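tool=predict chain=A
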Amino acid sequence: MKETVELQVKGMSCEHCKTAVEGALRAIDGIESATVNLDKNTVAVTFDPVKVDFDHFTEAIDEAGYELIGQV
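tool=predict ok
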């Protein structure tokens, strides 16, 4: 069963940021899609909750150089 969450991310401002965050999240096993909205500073993530949890999102976004603020 897939779930989708919208996450608020601090520090994204350009296409490079979008690519970095989406790529970091998509690289995690269990994440089906990650789509950044630069206007709202959010990323919509569709994932398998059996394989992935909020800590995975935080770690991936952190490693990409951005800060996960929380869920919208």
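Residues 25 and 57 are 7 Å apart (CA to CA). The chain has one domain: 3-71.
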